[in-house]
Design goal:
Layout: H1 8-12, H2 14-24, E1 27-31, E2 38-42, H3 45-53, E3 57-58, H4 61-65, H5 76-79, H6 89-97, H7 103-124, E4 129-131, H8 132-137, H9 139-149, H10 156-167, H11 172-194, H12 201-207, H13 216-229, H14 232-247, H15 249-257, H16 262-272, E5 282-284, E6 288-290, E7 293-295, E8 300-303, H17 305-308, H18 343-360, E9 365-366, E10 388-390
Parallel strand pairs: 2-8
Antiparallel strand pairs: 1-2, 3-5, 4-10, 5-8, 6-7, 9-10
């Protein structure tokens, strides 16, 4: 028996599935595969907020799988990253990385981000049709995070492909191989930074002093996480936002007339089509009650921001894009101690991109029917495989 999240139609329209499940119960046990495995899925907004902050829901993946035989071979820098840990390990690593993504730091990066966006959009002027995903949403965040980490330009396309393979819900062998390629690459990059002077992010992480500085292996793991998380979800944020505006011409026209409104609309765009469908792995370390449902110890718990952000109990008419809505309570970046560290950077990139698009390409429109759009076959993130548009 396969679960509701394995239906091929789920990738195209997860919201119908989320609505149906939430209508039954905001928390429920579902099958997660054909081998009799189950998990608890959280689709309600209030229940998701509670789950995000409940210390009985652990993110320590190694603890859950200890003693459970597995044929998977994930590189330690990927399997043991900060997102797969609990306090105090998580607190220590996040405390080292957090200063890199403050609002002030991101504000200082805006001129660089704007230059990258302008260069990418300059290429759009040379043709009548472009792919927003391929020609903008993928290269922008990859370029920015690779610049921060010191990844050479010649390696960036390869690094982006490995990251793509990690997220796609496909062949486990491909995912495992990508984890080793990325983990090995970052190991060498960190080793090179360790032996040379510099002022990049890796050098800053390696120099970080204090009572308990990070070991080189920890810096490698953190760098892998920042690389992957730093561009995959931002790619989907940009692609989903452009699509939402193209699907709602009056909203697009409004932003075209007043681009200053864009910064205040980002929360609603994140809520409307969240780049994270289901949050990263959690499991119950002891029995708990959530949403009126008793969850025994030892079960995976899947929190679905994509579902929570469409909960009518939290957002009226959730299927409607409303640029005037106060959507600050959305969960697209998570909630609690694991809330996305790079949220300020993602917001800055999306803000700059949308301002540039509505200003430079006011006649932008879909080049294919909406039903022909292809979505990435992954349950963790929600994003387009491509978004062909006509410049107009």
């Amino acid at each position: 028996m396969t679960g509701p999240l394995h239906n091929p139609h789920f990738f195209t329209d997860p919201y119908s599935t989320y609505d149906r499940l939430r209508g039954t119960a905001p928390v429920q046990k579902i099958p997660t595969g054909s081998r009799g495995h189950h998990a608890y899925l959280v689709t309600g907004h209030a229940e998701a907020r509670q789950a995000f902050t409940d210390p009985r829901l652990s993110k320590d993946t190694a603890r859950f799988f200890a003693g459970r035989p597995s044929k998977r071979d994930i590189h330690p820098a990927v399997s043991g990253n900060m997102l797969a840990s609990d306090p105090p390990h998580h607190t220590r690593q996040r405390g080292v990385a957090a200063p890199m993504f403050t609002t002030g730091r991101v504000q200082a990066m805006r001129p660089y981000i704007s230059r990258v966006v302008d260069r990418l959009l300059d290429d759009w002027t040379r043709t009548d049709e472009v792919d927003v995903v391929r020609d903008l949403a993928v290269p922008l965040p990859v370029t920015v995070i690779c610049e921060l980490l010191g990844v050479p330009e010649s390696d960036r396309d390869t690094v982006a492909r490995w990251s793509h393979d990690l997220f796609d819900a496909g062949d486990p062998d491909v995912i495992d191989a990508a984890s080793h390629a990325l983990g090995d690459y970052m190991t060498h990059l960190v080793a090179a930074a360790h032996g040379t002077p510099g002022d990049g992010m890796l050098h800053a992480l390696l120099r970080r002093s204090g009572a308990d500085p990070l070991a080189r292996e920890e810096v490698t793991s953190l760098a892998v996480l920042l690389l992957v998380a730093g561009h995959e979800t931002t790619t989907h944020f940009i692609g989903n936002s452009v699509l939402a505006l193209l699907q709602h011409p009056s909203s697009f026209a409004r932003l075209r007339q007043d681009p200053e409104l864009i910064a205040g609309c980002l929360d609603e765009l994140l809520r409307f089509d969240s780049p994270v469908g289901i949050a990263t792995f959690r499991h119950s370390t002891e029995a708990l009650r959530l949403g009126g449902v008793d969850i025994p110890a030892g079960f995976p718990v899947l929190i679905a921001p994509g579902a929570a952000n469409r909960d009518p109990a939290a957002f009226a008419e959730p299927r409607r894009l409303d640029l005037d809505r106060n959507a600050a309570g959305h969960l697209a970046f998570g909630h609690g101690i694991h809330r996305c560290l790079g949220a300020p950077l993602a917001r800055a990139e999306a803000d700059i991109v949308l301002r540039a698009i509505v200003t430079r390409f006011p006649g932008l429109r879909l080049a294919v029917p909406e039903e022909a759009l292809a979505w990435r076959p992954t349950r963790l993130t929600r994003g387009l495989a491509s978004l062909p548009v006509t410049i107009g």
